[in-house]
Specification:
Order of helices and strands: HHHHHHHH
CATH superfamily of the largest domain: AhpD-like
CATH class of the largest domain: Mainly Alpha
CATH topology of the largest domain: AhpD-like
Largest sheet: none
Strand content: under 5%
Number of strands: 0
Oligomer: single chain
CATH architecture of the largest domain: Up-down Bundle
Structural class: mainly alpha
Radius of gyration: 15 Å
């Protein structure tokens, strides 16, 4: 691995969690390995690992962009990762309010519904654990 890949994988584990990254790595095949390498290097190594802005800020931008584009699967992944980035539920609703104005109310409405479901699942899991 390169230094960039190492840096990218470290930040990916920090944001998405080691379990998620381990599952993704275990499911990697020869077919999708080039794509997985691209993600590790470009998204996580080049972008997320930069220290210009905080992980919280990157998280909010990512959530807003994914919601605005209607990328629900990736949006759910990043909504689940907010405890790892320092973002709060208040941050999420603020980002989604921007989505409503700049990308459309239907996209924001759907993203808010998804966030509520994910937060409810998280809360239920916390109650079961505690």
């Amino acid at each position: 691995m390169t230094e960039l890949r190492d840096k990218g994988m470290a930040i990916r584990r920090r944001v998405l969690g080691s379990d998620h990254v381990a599952r993704a790595e275990a499911q990697k095949t020869a077919f999708d390995e080039p794509f997985q390498s691209l993600i590790a290097d470009a998204a996580w190594g080049h972008v997320w690992a930069r220290d210009t802005i905080t992980l919280r800020e990157r998280s909010m931008m990512t959530i807003a962009l994914l919601a605005g584009l209607g990328n629900d699967g990736e949006l759910a992944l990043h909504l689940r990762s907010i405890p790892n980035t320092g973002a709060s539920r208040d941050d999420v609703i603020e980002a989604l309010m921007h989505v409503a104005i700049y990308a459309g109310v239907p996209r924001a409405n759907h993203a808010i519904k998804l966030a509520k479901e994910i937060f409810a699942q998280h809360d239920a899991a916390q109650e079961d654990a505690g």
